[in-house]
Write a structure and sequence with these properties.
Layout lengths: L5 H24 L8 H11 L5 H13 L7 H11 L7 H11 L8 H6 L11 H18 L3 H13 L9 H14 L2
């Protein structure tokens, strides 16, 4: 009988801690004013590695609160953050995290997902409009990939590894957790 290595066991425990933090965020978002709840913001900032200044965070969380219950597009969120919080910087990663928090059927874009799917990262010297278009195309590609058999296989893998969370987390985030787990183990 094959036994699990200590490293594999530690990775599973680390992932479970992440799952619990994610679930706490998702339970809280609908029941608190995220623009004012410092505990929510601390949890979100830690989980999603938000390292922006206070002014940026104030705008981000006020926007998140104001958009609850609305049917947002990734373009709307990216545009808002670019114009109001990011000094024209294109923020697909944080836009997708905000969007996913309000609508868990929407995928998250970050460096690990981009690496896993071999997506182009716009170089720093590109104009902002070209970066925006590139990142928007990346997000569309992620949305399409999440509907593939390969993505479904990762969701199934999550269910095998973490059966206790099977009915608590949507398919999109299950896939994200497996991508992060696999790329972190390298």
């Amino acid at each position: 009988m094959k036994t699990m290595s200590d490293k594999a066991r530690k990775e599973i425990e680390k992932t479970k801690r992440g799952i619990e933090k994610y679930l706490a965020i998702m339970r809280a978002v609908g029941h608190t004013n995220v623009a004012e709840d410092a505990a929510f913001q601390h949890l979100f900032n830690g989980f999603y590695q938000v390292r922006r200044n206070e002014a940026w965070r104030r705008i981000f969380y006020a926007y998140m609160e104001a958009q609850k219950g609305k049917n947002l597009s990734i373009e709307e969120v990216m545009t808002y953050l670019q114009r109001n919080a990011s000094g024209e910087r294109v923020e697909l990663s944080f836009a997708s995290k905000l969007l996913h928090t309000l609508d868990p059927t929407r995928p998250i874009y970050d460096r690990k997902v981009a690496a896993y799917l071999d997506l182009e990262t716009p170089p720093a010297y590109w104009r902002q409009d070209k970066k925006f278009a590139c990142q928007l195309a990346n997000y569309r590609e992620i949305e399409a990939w999440y509907r593939t058999p390969s993505a479904r296989a990762l969701s199934d893998k999550f269910d095998r590894l973490f059966p206790e969370y099977r009915d608590q987390i949507g398919r999109v985030k299950k896939i994200d957790f497996i991508i992060w787990r696999e790329l972190s183990a390298d």
